[in-house]
Amino acid sequence: MVRAVYVKRGQVMNKKLQEQLLKRSKAAKMERFGKTISFLALMLITVTVFAIIIFVASKGLSTFVTNHVNIVDFLTGKNWNPNVTDSKGQPEVGALPMISGSFVVTILSALLATPFAIGTAIFMNEISPHRGAKLLQPVIELLVGIPSVVYGFIGLTVIVPAVRSVFGGSGFGILAGTFVLFVMILPTVTSMSVDALRSVPRYYREAALALGATQWQTIYKVVLRSATPGILTAIVFGMARAFGEALAVQMVIGNAALLPTNLVSPASTLTSVLTTGIGNTVMGSLQNNALWSLALVLLIMSLIFNLVVRMIGRKGAMSK
Amino acid sequence: MNPKVSNQIAIAMLYVIASTIVVILAALLGYIIIGGLPAISWHFLTSPAKAFTSGGGIGIQLFNSFYLLILTMLISFPIALGAGIYLNEYAKQNWVTSLVRTSIEILSSLPSVVVGLFGFLIFVVQFGFGFSILSGAFALTFFNLPLLTRSIEEALAAVPNEQREGGLALGLSKWETVLHIIVPAALPTILTGVILSAGRVFGEAAALIYTAGQSAPALNFTDWNPFNISSPLNPMRPAETLAVHIWKINSEGIMPDAKAISSGSSAVLVISVLGFNLLARFVGHRLFKRFTAG
């Protein structure tokens, strides 16, 4: 009898011990909880990105699916007037004026900013590192942070009147947009170019100088060559920023959905039409859908810029 | 050409370029700050805007900007911290991680107007939040998350591996090590990143015009119940921020002193961003000293 009780008690204790040993400890529970929570946070970001792409694409494609606009007409049409239907009974939604406006201001501002940005980066890193670090670096960091509306306001009060008095016309247009974007992307491109130059190993320069090269020959033939992928990335980043910039450009470009014929006549970009238009159209109407198609073009261009940056990175990595 | 001569010419050119840039940048900053300072007064900073007459201020817009900034940070910081921790401490090198990294990169390069339109579609229209601070805060969260995540991840990566080994050697689980050792060690850098991103959020306008709205209804600053419509804390009211205000009065403002108001507001924005930058340096430096007893 007594023996059986002991056996029984032993079994109970064994079971308790087993439970205790097999049970997940508090720390292990916390570990799992923490890992799950942080993973969910990461997934939230990823899902958001996909949601943005899917939602914008589905809204943007409805112009072509629901309203039966021909996609080629949309991309190459020169008349943007979604309220009016043309002779064939199709609404006038030619996005070429905006698309070309966006590309022209982006390319012009990048062309203008690149020599200045690279020159300044070389100056900061090669010619006068001391002054570069003390004077230029903090100013450029601050300028990267200046809100775009402030650039737009300065464009409106300084650049537009200046363009008007030099070139005539209203002053609003592609040229004013180019100048505003030039100042906006300059700090970004410069600071990224400085990073690219800084990552060139010191012994490259020493080797070139030891061979008897002058400082300029060293910079031009050695430092710039090996920093090329980084500098190209900087330029593409600047272009992506210029292409997607909305308010600063909208304030100075004049907002006329016309194919740009010269640099000082009012024009428009994808972003400027979007900022002024979305509030004035009814959700689900053709006018609204056409605007979402413009947003889709903007999104696709941003993806393409991303792809270009990746390709440059891969190529740069291979040549090393 | 003689290499020595071309060297001289090239270096002289670089001096010219660099000084041109310095002149442009100095003129820009000088124009904003010197041009805007005369417009700033206590009255300007605290009184509400006027639509048709001169003498309006930016009080409500300034409050909206800060309130929106705080809400955005409250939403985005925990998410970015979690994502940063997972990316740096747990993530393996596989296709999921590289997909996630790619999508973060894409999000950071999306034009802010596209992010704003997405916020408009989802929160304003779909969820029925209307033009409200809450919609604006969510849109700004999307805008803020990629950069904040990256800066937190970099801050965590800068913590030496010995710290992790030390934690594990004491018998802590990985999560406990991260929470009690790694995150505190990275805190100065994390805070610097948070403050810098706050400066960016503070000046953002394109993502807000269709989410937080373009109107600033009068507020009753004695009513702090968040459920009252005129309460400053109500997250469901439309809220025009300072940056949106500058855009708005320059594109369709009809008050006679629009230019003075915009230059004053621009100066306030730039000085705030400058303040955020200085604060980031100061806080990072100070905390680092405190934590390392150095």
Automatic annotation (TrEMBL), chain A:
The chain crosses the membrane at residues 33-57, 98-123, 135-160, 166-189, 231-253, 290-309. One of its GO terms (molecular function) is phosphate transmembrane transporter activity. One of its GO terms (biological process) is phosphate ion transport. Residues 99-309 form the ABC transmembrane type-1 domain. Keywords: Cell membrane, Membrane, Phosphate transport, Transmembrane, Transmembrane helix, Transport. It comes from the Bacteria. Its main location: membrane. One of its GO terms (cellular component) is plasma membrane. It is found in: Cell membrane. The keyword Cell membrane applies. It is a multi-pass membrane protein. Part of the binding-protein-dependent transport system for phosphate; probably responsible for the translocation of the substrate across the membrane. Belongs to the binding-protein-dependent transport system permease family. CysTW subfamily. This is Phosphate transport system permease protein. It comes from Secundilactobacillus pentosiphilus.
UniProtKB/TrEMBL annotation, chain B:
Its main location: membrane. It is a multi-pass membrane protein. Keywords: Cell membrane, Membrane, Transmembrane, Transmembrane helix, Transport. InterPro entries: MetI-like (IPR000515), MetI-like_sf (IPR035906), Phosphate_PstA (IPR005672). It comes from the Bacteria. It holds the Pfam family BPD_transp_1. It is found in: Cell membrane. This is Phosphate transport system permease protein PstA. The lineage of its organism: Bacteria, Bacillati, Bacillota, Bacilli, Lactobacillales. The gene is pstA_2.
